Each structure stands twice: as structure tokens, then as C-alpha cells.
Amino acid sequence: IEHYEQALAIAREIGDRRGEGIHLGNLGNAWADLGEVRKAIDYYEQALAIAREIGDRRGEGNRLVNMGLAYWELGDLERARRLWRRALEILEAIEDPYAPTVRRWLDETEQRD
User: Fold this and answer.
1) Alpha helices, DSSP H only, in 2-113?
2) What is the CA radius of gyration of the chain?
3) Mind giving me the DSSP string for 81-104?
4) Which of 10, 30, 41, 90 has the fewest CB atoms found within 10 Å of its own CB?
5) Is the pTM above the cut of 0.90?
6) For the range 74-78, what are the long-range contacts, defined as Cβ-Cβ under 8 Å and sequence gap of 24 or more?
């Protein structure tokens, strides 16, 4: 976390918005790994805003996927699915190799209902 915080500070200092978004996303992942899911969501939301601002479609899709995973961890399956559906639209549009995984998650979770 300390490494990502330092990298985030540097990205902000030099005005690297893409780098800032990446480091925010990495901080979200780190906090999620530590079980601090709500804190992770805060970082993902900041990273998502930057991805949209700079037109980073892959970054936007990845942040939506990660937010979906976070909400899944919190037990909010419907919100997770909504985020994954939005992510899947983007990932398929840019032909991201991660798209089939997200589609599988959606299919598996919808079968549970």
C-alpha cells in the first residue's frame, strides 16, 4: 500500500492522470485483498472517474469489474451484476480477453436465482 500511495503522489505531482487512475485501482485491489472492501470501493470509484474523464475504456471496464467483485464480497449480488454488465459491454466492444470471464460470472450468478 505504501508503494502505491507513493506512486499515486508522484502521478498527481506530474499530472499523469492515467497513472493516477492505475495507482488508485491498485490501492483498491490492495485494500480489497486485506478485506477492507468499502475502502477498496472508494478507490475504485476515484479510478473509474478518471478512466471516464480521460477516455480509458479498458480502465473503465476493469474498474467496473473490480467494483462488482467488491459488491459481491459485500453480498450485494444485484449491484455486482449491474456493474459486470456495464463492464462486459465495454470489454466486448474493445475485444478485451477478460470479457469471457465476466460473461461466465454473470451466467453463473444468474443461474443461482
Assistant:
1) 2-14, 17-33, 37-54, 57-73, 77-93, 99-111
2) 14
3) HHHHHHHHHHHHHTT-TTHHHHHH
4) 10
5) yes
6) 74/37, 74/38, 77/109
Residues in the chain: 113
Residue 112 identity (one-letter amino acid): R
Distance CA 106, CA 8 (A): 32
| Cα–Cα dist 109/81, whole Å | 8
Cα–Cα distance, 65 to 88 (Å, whole number): 8
Measured from the Cβ of residue 28, the count of other Cβ atoms closer than 10 Å reads 27
CA distances, 82 to each of 6, 44, 53, 109 (Å): 33, 15, 21, 12
pLDDT digits (tens, 9 = 90+) for 17-73: 999 999 999 999 999 999 999 999 999 999 999 999 999 999 999 999 999 999 999
Q: Are 40 and 2 in contact (CB under 8 A)?
A: no
